[in-house]
Design goal:
The complex is a heterodimer of chains A (about 180) and B (about 250). Chain A is an all-alpha fold and about 180 residues long. Chain A has one domain. Chain A contains seven helices and no strands. In chain A, helix 2 runs antiparallel to helix 3 and helix 4 runs antiparallel to helix 5. Chain A is globular, with a radius of gyration of 17 Å. The model of chain A has no long low-confidence stretch (mean pLDDT about 85). With about 250 residues, chain B is of the alpha+beta class. Chain B folds into two domains: about 80 residues, no CATH class; about 100 residues, Ferric Hydroxamate Uptake Protein, Chain A, domain 1, CATH 2.170.130.30. Chain B contains six helices and seven strands, in the order H-H-H-H-H-H-E-E-E-E-E-E-E. In chain B, helix 4 crosses helix 6. Chain B starts with 6 loop residues before the first helix and ends with a strand. About 30% of the residues of chain B have low confidence. The chains are: A mainly alpha (about 180), B alpha+beta (about 250). The interface between A and B is medium-sized, with 18 and 23 residues.
């Protein structure tokens, strides 16, 4: 095993599809169930954990399924595209962080990743607000984004606590598979 | 690092980067050439709408134009000015307003049949109206009333006025906020610059077809902003009227 190889869990396609379905179902259920709380959703934390555990392409698939299916219930619009884009950006940023600091070789630092998911709340808000930049330029974007900052904060705080909650659970569930995939490398 | 990725993952990353660049490009273009202009038209007191459906409104306007302190070149004004000293121009306006209000009220209560054929407001009634106002101005003593501090609000339903009074100007009053001072029940949706008045005094939008609802005018011009974001000035003439474009 060479030093920089990443140890992500690889499944057979059938099992992968089943797992994507399960994780997306959890995301969709949480998005619909927690509608009352603005932006406090575990979706971003789950996607960050997906990138760490299963790799980038798996997280992309989870993102698309989550957004499209949950927006059937919550409302389709131009924001669907921007939500997908925002979570793609979060996936890519997480992947860059993971590769730069070789996080996968060891268990990622618990509090550091929680803080990272806190920052990702603001990144998500920024990318989703970009639709106003597309429509009306800076004059429309800046007030729109500044008005949304409070709700981005809700999202960020929610991410922080959901990461603290979910990371131990998911690591425990996939502990066996993680060890197995480490042996193959 | 890049070579280890799968082909589809690379494709998605390229797509994300292209999308972000496209958004940035279009956004920068739109910041220099803003497609949405939020300029508010200057209220123009002389302008009158020529829509057939808003005849109730039109009539109202014709009755209230003599009271506006702006330089309207109506014949009554020119007739009046020689008789009165030109210094207390504002003071002479206030009795005109009140008298015209009384006028409309009495007319509405006494002759409801006249209301129904409003589609052609005859010049006869107008002349009568003007004569009466002239008489009253001459008979009544000149009152010292600060007209500039007042806002005149008229709420016109179908063939009847719900409200037609002056009210005192409050700080930061908008065309929407003065509705609360009337005491009439109303419902709205949205808030801030997205406020939309659905009903006033039990008369709802879409009660008379899908293209009916409440609109408002300030000094005879319908602004193209929400009522809650239109800040009133002193002496504005606000009219809420029910339209039916069916």
């Amino acid at each position: 095993m060479s030093g920089t190889t990443s140890t992500i869990i690889k499944y057979r396609p059938v099992k992968e599809i089943a797992l994507i379905g399960l994780l997306s179902a959890f995301n969709i259920a949480s998005r619909i169930g927690l509608q009352a709380l603005p932006n406090v959703k575990p979706v971003t934390s789950i996607i960050i954990l997906c990138v760490i555990l299963f790799g980038l392409d798996f997280a992309f698939k989870v993102t698309v399924v989550t957004t499209v299916v949950s927006n059937i219930f919550l409302g389709m619009g131009i924001w669907t595209f921007f939500q997908i884009l925002a979570w793609f950006v979060i996936c890519i940023l997480t992947e860059i962080l993971v590769r730069l600091f070789h996080i996968r070789e060891d268990k990622p630092h618990y509090m550091l990743m929680a803080c990272f998911s806190f920052v990702m709340g603001y990144v998500f808000g920024f990318v989703v607000s970009l639709d106003q930049f597309l429509i009306g330029g800076l004059g429309l974007f800046i007030p729109y984004y500044l008005n949304g900052l409070l709700f981005d904060t809700f999202h960020a705080v929610g991410n922080f606590f959901f990461y603290l909650m979910l990371a131990p659970i998911l690591y425990k569930i996939f502990e066996k598979d993680l060890k197995k995939s480490e042996q193959y490398h | 690092m890049w070579k280890k990725l799968e082909k589809q993952t690379k494709f998605v990353i390229v797509l994300v980067i292209v999308a972000l660049i496209a958004i940035a490009g279009i956004g920068i273009y739109h910041s220099f050439h803003p497609p949405i202009t939020t300029a508010i038209k200057q209220p123009h007191p002389k302008k009158k709408t020529s829509k057939k459906d808003v005849v109730v409104e039109k009539k109202k306007e014709e009755e209230t134009t003599p009271s506006s302190s702006s330089t309207t070149s109506s014949p009554t004004k020119q007739e009046e000015t020689p008789s009165n000293p030109p210094s207390n121009k504002t003071a002479e306006n206030s009795p005109t307003t009140s008298s015209s209000q009384k006028d409309t009220k009495t007319k509405k209560s006494t002759t409801p049949s006249q209301e129904k054929n409003q589609s052609t407001p005859t010049p006869q009634t107008n002349n009568n109206n003007q004569n009466q106002t002239k008489q009253t101005t001459q008979s009544q003593p000149v009152q010292e009333e600060p007209v500039e501090e007042k806002i005149h609000l008229t709420i016109t339903g179908i063939n009847q006025n719900y409200y037609d009074h002056d009210m005192t100007m409050k700080e930061g009053a908008t065309a929407y906020s003065i509705l609360t001072d009337t005491g009439l029940p109303y419902t709205k949706t949205g808030f801030g610059s997205a406020t939309y008045v659905r009903s006033i005094n039990g008369l709802y939008e879409k009660d008379h077809g899908p293209l009916s609802g409440w609109m408002y005018k300030v000094n005879g011009v319908a602004p193209n902003v929400s009522a809650a974001s239109y800040h009133l000035k002193k002496g504005d003439q606000v009219v809420w009227y029910y339209v039916n474009y069916n």
